[in-house]
Amino acid sequence: MTANDDALLDAKARLLTGADMWSLPAVPELGFRGLTMSDGPIGVRGVRWTGDPSIALPSPTALAATWDVSLVRTLGALLGQEAQRKDVQVLLAPTVNIQRSPLGGRHFECFSEDPLLTGLIAAAYVQGVQECGVAVTVKHFVANDFETERMTASVTVSERALREVYLRPFEIVVREARPWGIMAAYNGVNGVRMSENAALLNGVLREEWGFDGFVVSDWFGARDTVAAALGGLDVAMPGMASPYGPPLAAAVREGEVPRKVLEEKAARVLRLAGRTSGPTAPGHFDGPVLARVAAARATTLLRNDGVLPLEGSPRIALIGGPAKDARVMGGGSAQVTPFHVVSALDGLTAAGLDVRYARGADPSERLLPAAVTVRVTALAADGAVLAEFDQPDGVIQWLGQLPEGIDPAALDSVVLRGTLTPGESGGHLLGVEGAGTFRLTADGEVLFDGTVAPASGDPFAALFVAPQTVLPKVLEAGRPVEVEVVHRVARAAGPVPFLGFALLHREPRPDPDALLDEAVEAAASAEVAVVVVGTSKEVESEGFDRTSLRLPGRQDELVARVAAANPRTIVVVNAGSPVEMPWRDDVAALLLTWFPGQEGGHALADVLTGALEPGGRLPTTWPAVLEDCPVVDVTPKDGVIEYAEGVFVGYPAWQRAGTAPAFEFGSGLGYTTWSYESAEHAGGTLTVTVRNTGTRSGREVVQVYLSPADPDPESPARRLVGFAIAEAGPGESTTVAIGVPARAYATWRDGAWNPNPGRHLLHTGHSLTDTPLTTLVHHP
Q1: Rounded to whole angstroms, how far apart are CA atoms 675 and 603?
Q2: Angle at CA 223, nearest 5°, toward 213 and 14?
Q3: Which residues are CB-neighbours of 697 under 8 A, at least 6 positions away?
Q4: What are the domain boundaries of the chain?
Q5: Is residue 656 a contact partner of residue 630, using CB atoms and an 8 Å limit?
Q6: Predicted local confidence at residue 493, as pLDDT
Q7: Pfam family example for this protein (predicted)?
Q8: Beta bridge partners of 503
Q9: What is the distance between the alpha carbons of residues 416 and 407, in angstroms, rounded to a whole number?
Q10: In 200-322, beta strands by DSSP E
Q11: CATH topology for 288-366+511-638?
Q12: Rounded to an integer, what distance in angstroms lies between the CA atom of residue 11 and that of residue 360?
């Protein structure tokens, strides 16, 4: 090996790991300018965890609820535009894992329980992003469908289930959208860690499907240099404590990794650089307008006795903590800092509706960050100012990359100072969120000076659901109060700079019983009651799984009492994944808004007034109670989680169990009605004619399910094989063509896709079992 060859070996190894938390280094010897990665999937956060605003779209489950691949492709292009604005070349999204259990902590970040719907929505997302010259990393490959022990557990799954359920959405995206990146999951599959799984990364992904992009680890998911290199992993992120870079170069020199393997990995990263230096966004997209349309189209109407859309200008009692303190996204790496957030109260007020607000109940007793502009000062041990800047709230979340000018080794303390002007006199609550040493003062009075222990050893819990220290303080309305938090920074035990804490505040509030009574009184005196309920960040977030599907706090009691007081009660569920709704048959209307993104309040007003039709259909089954769910297990035992249900995941499992859910897969109402007139199959295409039998224009999601004419107990009773959006005016008919590919008739057995010849039935209609049309197909 010549000196030049030796230098190039080092350069290529350096190309394959991070320069820091979010970027690959510039390698001039290879003509590589470096590139930056950013978390998604609802926005583009950038390299800073907070303080760099981004568009905030509805959650991925909400996007899947639209069943609208054209809209999702446009939203993908909007995200590509946002990435370009932030000089980001790789968006770490979308998540195409399957919603196997409703207890999955990142359920909201996935699209659906169905592999076809997941794959087609994800493919549209990828196409939109990459049209802008921005790469994606479709994740988490594969079977990362739980959070508990996700970094170490191995999934035991049959080859058939792996192929038909868990690999299928990835295959659809690879074949339909040609993604430029894939992210390997933390977990193992059948005993082999995914960052080292040559059979799946090299064999299935590259050789069988023809994937020609790069494979990146999940952050800190690569642990063994040789095993990862031979297993098919191209890039190990981040740069701290990486097994690539110099360790990979050493492994090549020692003959443990063939030089050809290194060359191929470097070539894939250089190909990525070429792809992301291409075209700019195809036109300009209005983010708030698109986010508003998407939120309305995702809104899923599950019950309506005729109260919606609202007529005239009724007196509305708007009730619920989430109606004012909107939760527009799930927790974890999916978080971004929105430019603004439109709550339900904001949206209904802006629409000119006659609204009286009552809190009623909250999904969480935790305090929210103080809504004040704070001055942030970072200090060295000698008092020297390392950095100083203003930010619009009292939240500090620095992970991996600290603000400019702050050297992690020199940082000793961070000070937040702000002026709080109370809106009410009385007993306020002030506090600090975070673990470590803090000093909290108000007008110079020390309220807290001490050390707070972490609530758990989980790093994600420490970042997203940190302990809160809360103190009472009597304040006078209109009299400004100077508040200050001083946080002494502990020396980082790990390789990643991390700092997270917040200044908290809550205005005086009646006791919980009084809040409920106030809400009931408001409902009784109104013509319509709109109750917004939801989950909290302690319930739905990356890093942990759920333990219950019940709404937290006293929200069920709130709905029951309001519905008893006002028969025209509309409930809005602000949650990213299924919740139990014991009152669902006692309310006039039921809307799911999911995590609706920054424009959620405007979209809700549009739907309530009928300015826009609720376009959503369920992408996942909603149970009556958790105990009815056929698949719930998300907890590994001795480091292994068994997917013993095989291919019976989602609605196939419900159909096999014979238990009726609260709302089946594909369910959803609009503001008009439809009749299904005909369905004819020829040449692999089903042509369906539907008629709008209502009095206003509308959209219908035409769904097609396949079943064998002779039931097979080893296979799902029905499986989604296609769908399309139909639009028509009142009284009009329209025809849609839905392709039914040959793969729909095949089963994975004996190491290959095998066709199932004979008679099959295509069921066409509104949802899984509401299928008025049946078409007999003879498959060769």
Answers
A1: 28
A2: 55
A3: 672, 727, 728, 729, 730
A4: 3-275, 288-366+511-638, 368-506, 672-779
A5: yes
A6: 55
A7: Fn3-like
A8: 432
A9: 18
A10: 214-217, 300-304, 315-319
A11: Rossmann fold (3.40.50)
A12: 61
| Alpha carbon 423 to its chain's center | 35
- Give the Cα separation of 33 and 688 in Å (integer): 51
Q: What is the pLDDT of residue 457?
A: 62
Contact (Cβ atoms closer than 8 angstroms) between residue 365 and residue 521: no
Burial 337-352 (b: 16+ CB within 10 A, else e): bbeebbbbbbbbbebe
What is the distance between the alpha carbons of residues 185 and 199, in angstroms, rounded to a whole number?
14
Element (H, E) at 120: helix 115-130
| CB 10 within 8 Å of CB 264 | no
With vertex at residue 520, the alpha carbon angle to CA 516 and CA 522, rounded to the nearest 5 degrees, is 115
Task: Let me know: does 317 contact 356? Beta carbons within 8 Å.
Answer: yes
> What pLDDT was estimated at residue 370?
94
- Select from 272, 248, 275, 274 the least CA-distant residue to 262: 248
CATH architecture of 672-779: Sandwich (2.60)
CB 39, CB 330: distance < 8 Å: no
Residue appearing with tokens 């599907």: 549
Known catalytic residues are 218
Cβ of 335: how many Cβ atoms within 10 Å?
23
Report the SS3 class of residue 114. Answer: coil
Domain 368-506 carries which CATH code?
2.60.120.260
Task: Identify the residue whose tokens are 């100083």.
Answer: 388
* ∠ CA 422-425-429, rounded to 5°: 65
| The predicted structure's pLDDT at residue 464 | 72
Residue 759 forms beta bridges with which residues? 778
Using DSSP's 3-state secondary structure scheme, residue 202 falls into: helix
pTM: 0.96
Per-residue pLDDT tens digits for 292-337: 999 999 999 999 999 999 999 999 999 999 999 999 999 888 899 9
- Ramachandran assignment for 350, one of left (phi > 0), alpha (psi -120 to 50 degrees), beta (any other): alpha
Within 13 A of 723's CA, how many CA atoms are on the CB side? Answer: 31
What torsion do the CA atoms of 511, 512, 518, 523 make, to the nearest 10 degrees?
170
Q: What class, spelled out in words, does domain 3-275 have in CATH?
A: alpha beta
pLDDT for 495: 65
Whole-number pLDDT of residue 458: 58
At residue 724, what is the residue type?
A: A
C-beta of residue 436 within 8 angstroms of C-beta of residue 453: no
In the chain, which stretches have pLDDT less than 70? 1, 3, 279-282, 456-463, 491-496
Residue 534 · residue 363 · CB < 8 Å: yes
Cα–Cα distance, 690 to 15 (Å, whole number)? 55
